Amino acid sequence: MNTSWTRHILAISIISLSVLGIASFAGIAIYMAPSADRLETSQMVFTSVLPLFGTWVGTVLAFYFARENLQSATESTQKILSRALNPHTTPVTDVMIDMSRATKRVLAPNESPEDVSLRELMMTMQSSGFHRIPVVDAAGIVARVVHDSTINEYASGRVQDPSFADTIADLETQDKFRAAIRAIAYVGTEATISDARVALGNVDLCNDVFVTASGLRSEPALGWLTNTDLAGIAES
Fold it and tell me: Does 142 share its domain with 223?
């Protein structure tokens, strides 16, 4: 016999017999009660049986509907994962962080990246829960990417308390920090995840890849892929 059909028959039979049994016991309890207590007994049976009946109805609905929804969700997830697990064919546009929604520091028209306060960047990262923040100009072109680990290392090497009147200009007085926040890779919108990984590896100290229309540094960033994002996508 078909397994699905057997499951349906079994479920209907169990529910039907259970409802019949509950109704029978309720009727017997009311019938056997003394006349003076019959109203009270009826109320007690009603308040006891109704939640039980509701539970059975809920079980049936869950069986017939939640199961289908779960199957559909599982199939959708498998389709997404099957694409995500193929770095050689999955375009970066499918997995990138959209820059229109990314937490970033946008420069004012006459402001340079060097003017940006490290304290401001650190507070923004702490409030947003992120550990890095891109600094972009008004057109959306990425100028720097500052990580909290870079600021923390810079601060720990200070003799005086960097109560953070310090700016990116101060940070860049040390070559290693200057190199770290300028280590940025770029790919075009036609690039795949594998292309992004190659671009990341081709830039020393790089932890961030930005997606632009043609893969040029001089173009506005459309999307962003971190080294963590790229590492989390398994090879197919």
Answer: yes
CA pair distance 187, 200, nearest whole angstrom = 9
Q: What letters, b where the CB count within 10 A reaches 16 and e where it falls short, cover 104-133?
A: bbebeeeeebeebebeebbeebeeeeeebb
**CATH number where 176 lies:** 3.10.580.10
- Which residue, among 47, 136, 56, 72, has the nearest Cα to 99 in the 3D structure? 136
In a domain, 236, yes or no: no
Radius of gyration of the chain (CA): 32
Strand partners, 58: none
Per-residue pLDDT of 87-104, as tens digits, reads 888 899 999 999 999 999
pLDDT at 154 over 70: yes
- Looking at the structure, do residues 188 and 99 belong to the same domain, yes or no? yes
- CA diameter of the chain: 96
Residue 96 burial (CB < 10 Å; 0-12/13-18/19+)? buried
What is the extent of the structural domain holding 167? Answer: 92-231
Half-sphere exposure for 219 (CA within 13 Å, toward CB): 15
pTM of the model: 0.63
